[in-house]
Amino acid sequence: MTVGIGALQCVVLDCPDPRALARFYGELLGGEVDRPDPRWSLDDDWSTLHAASGGLVLAFQRIGDHRPPRWPDPSAPQQFHLDIEVHDLDRVHGEVLGLGAVPLDLGDGTRSWRVYADPAGHPFCLVRH
């Protein structure tokens, strides 16, 4: 293992409503929304999720003219995506829809992953464990 120049502090997602997207991912991944942290200030333009697993922090930044990616359209690339491991794709499908996710590519039922968009339009994959 090599030592890098820096350490990953958080992953930041641009969006129109930071707190709403933090709550979406909080329900999806578990963890604490807007936990006080000396590394940044929390306000209407910045929200965080300290995820339940492994200390990962997702941050959400308000962008006034946010234009979501259009998966899989290369003229508006996905910019990044999260892979989220689950045990039962069918059961979790209904849960993420209930949280506000939108299915983008559910496949043919034989592959081990499905693509969704979060409420701000960022793609993410549910991947069978």
From TrEMBL:
Pfam families from the UniProt entry: Glyoxalase_6
Domain Glyoxalase-like: 11-127
Protein name from the UniProt record: VOC family protein
Organism: Streptomyces himalayensis subsp. aureolus
